[in-house]
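Structure in, sequence out. Go:
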């Protein structure tokens, strides 16, 4: 008899029977421990409770259940549940607020309105409801009824995926700030894989918070009696003398002020001290009489800023009489004043009130710095030094000042000298020049009489200019003076050396009248020339016809004759169109009854004026000088040659 009737039956569906003799119901383990190490253990359960071999395990691994048990049956699909049933009465709730401008109120500029935003999962609709506050004066309740809300202009609507904490959404032109949500909303969004932002604090309405404060602030009145102060200190004013030093800034200056402190009501007045012809407008007051703030308070954002006067809410401390001390700076309305003195009444008041007896005045007068010596830049060699220096004095240079008295005394006074050019070139040895020194301006001009067939163009060699002596300093040049011109002197003019050979009669007279400014060498040269003139000339028995041949001979040998011929030729070219009478020679011969060829000087000038001769011309003056014979007579023969055809 078999003890277990179900033993050995195949383990197939429908043939499985409960073994009533089984007492161990634990799950077999695949791991065992031996000596503290985990080792794999084959399962002990199987058909007939026998352990499967490796070959059986490999055979079972290659077999599919579908071959043994057939095609599995597909599980039936779940029942369809519509959205209005699945999400019925499931609503997402968000706490939000929006800001609304208040343009017509003086107590508030904007208000914060707190709302609740509901999102209905049933049909994706939303509504905005504002909790009702009693006595708010604002129509509250349902702001936006339940409906699908447009998200943009493309026709999209808000979805629960677009909602989160800490974001702004715009609905019908109003921007709502979502700050928090309830527990159901948080759980639902997190289950759908949406990461929520941290919650924010709800913004408070400033006007609502202001109304929560107490209506009145009771302040205990002070025991100070303003009437007693007025009756005690009426017409008592402290006077201080102060300066405002603004010299550190551009175009700044140091100005003087008088500060009045009225003990009646602790007000301060600042007056300007005007001086005569100071160029300022006559405004007596810099600051009107008022209380001066010493420490200002940091005003709140909602404090009105358009006020005419400073109120007590803006000031923590006012200036009092103890703040005005002689010798200390004081800052009033951003300007720093230095108090350097006060009047006797103020000294007595400080002595009796504060016990300050020593208030010495402070000397604030500043010593002017020594004038800075102006240094001129080095001379560049162009023009005169005095003329170039004017560019360093003013922006628009002016001509240097002239010695008007010297010009008036020496007007038309010219010293003329005959000079030769000292040059190694042989062609320059016979060249003669006329150096003219103008006493009015200390200028020198050089004229070279043209010589016919000499190959050298004569005329003006140097215009009027001042000539610097050689080896004189550049910054302080030394110019040639009349004392440097005498017979035998060497004059260096811009690198050219001229030797003075002769002078005219006027130079001799000038040197005699001003002998103190000439050197002994110059006076001795003039004396030698006078002796040569006074020596008797050899008499000639030649007839009048030989007179012309003698003059021709002298023309070839005497340089003065060459100079006269050159002057006559130049005058003929320059004055060929001048309206002179043709009978100029006959006129002079009428007055020269002896036919000597000379007339006295006074008669000569009268004849020239009657004949309209340009005696003021420089060339004509030079010709008259060469034709002069002594101090009384003039050789009109050579003079007439210049005006004859």
């Amino acid at each position: 008899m078999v003890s277990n009737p179900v033993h050995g039956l195949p383990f197939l569906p429908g043939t499985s029977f409960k073994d009533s003799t089984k007492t161990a119901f634990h799950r077999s383990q695949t791991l065992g421990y031996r000596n503290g190490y985990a080792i794999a253990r084959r399962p002990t359960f199987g058909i007939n409770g026998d352990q499967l071999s490796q070959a059986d395990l490999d055979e079972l691994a290659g077999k599919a259940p579908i071959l043994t048990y057939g095609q599995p049956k597909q599980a039936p699909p779940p029942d369809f549940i519509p959205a209005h049933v699945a999400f019925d009465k499931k609503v997402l709730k968000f706490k939000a607020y929006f800001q609304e401008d208040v343009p017509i109120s003086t107590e508030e500029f904007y208000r914060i309105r707190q709302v609740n935003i509901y999102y209905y999962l049933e049909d994706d609709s939303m509504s905005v409801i504002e909790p009702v506050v009693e006595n708010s004066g604002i129509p509250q309740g349902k702001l936006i009824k339940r409906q699908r809300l447009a998200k943009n202009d493309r026709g999209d609507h808000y979805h629960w995926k677009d909602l989160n904490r800490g974001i702004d959404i715009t609905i019908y032109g109003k921007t709502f700030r979502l700050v928090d949500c309830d527990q159901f909303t948080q759980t639902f969004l997190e289950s759908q894989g949406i990461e929520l932002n941290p919650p924010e604090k709800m913004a408070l309405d400033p006007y609502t918070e202001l109304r929560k404060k107490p209506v009145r602030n009771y302040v205990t009145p002070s025991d100070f009696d303003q009437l007693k102060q007025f009756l005690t200190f009426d017409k008592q004013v402290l006077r201080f003398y102060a300066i405002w030093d603004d010299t550190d800034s551009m175009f700044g200056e140091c100005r003087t002020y008088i500060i009045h402190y009225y003990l009646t009501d602790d007000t301060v007045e600042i007056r300007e001290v005007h001086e005569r012809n100071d160029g300022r407008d006559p405004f007596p007051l810099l600051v009107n009489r008022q209380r001066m703030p010493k420490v200002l308070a940091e005003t709140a954002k909602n404090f009105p800023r358009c006020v005419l006067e400073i109120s007590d809410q803006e000031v923590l401390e006012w200036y009092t009489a103890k703040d005005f001390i002689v010798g200390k700076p004081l800052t009033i309305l951003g300007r720093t004043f230095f108090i350097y003195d006060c009047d006797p009444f103020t000294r007595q008041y400080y002595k009796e009130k504060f016990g300050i007896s020593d208030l010495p005045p402070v000397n604030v007068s500043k010593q002017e710095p020594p004038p800075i010596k102006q240094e001129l830049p080095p001379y560049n060699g162009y023009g005169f030094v005095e003329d170039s220096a004017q560019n360093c004095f003013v922006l628009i240079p002016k001509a240097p000042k002239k010695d008007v008295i010297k010009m008036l005394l020496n007007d038309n006074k010219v010293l003329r000298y005959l000079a030769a050019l000292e040059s190694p070139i042989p062609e320059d040895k016979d060249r003669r020049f006329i150096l003219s020194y103008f006493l009015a301006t200390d200028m020198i001009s050089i004229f070279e009489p043209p010589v016919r067939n000499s190959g050298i163009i004569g005329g003006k060699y140097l215009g009027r200019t001042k000539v610097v002596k050689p080896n004189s300093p550049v910054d302080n040049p030394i110019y040639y003076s009349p004392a440097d011109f005498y017979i035998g002197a060497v004059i260096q003019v811009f690198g050219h050396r001229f030797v003075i050979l002769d002078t005219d009669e006027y130079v001799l007279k000038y040197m005699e009248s001003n002998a103190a400014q000439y050197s002994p060498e110059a006076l001795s040269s003039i004396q030698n020339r006078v002796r040569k003139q006074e020596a008797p000339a050899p008499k000639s028995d030649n007839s009048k016809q030989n007179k012309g041949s003698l003059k021709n001979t002298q023309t070839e040998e005497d340089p003065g004759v060459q100079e006269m011929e050159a002057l006559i030729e130049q005058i003929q070219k320059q004055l060929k169109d001048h309206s002179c009478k043709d009978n100029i020679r006959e006129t002079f011969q009428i007055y020269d009854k002896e036919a000597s060829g000379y007339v006295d000087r006074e008669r000569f000038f009268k004849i020239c004026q009657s004949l309209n001769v340009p005696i003021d011309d420089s060339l004509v003056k030079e010709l008259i000088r060469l034709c002069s014979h002594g101090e009384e007579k003039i050789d009109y023969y050579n003079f007439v040659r210049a005006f004859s055809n």
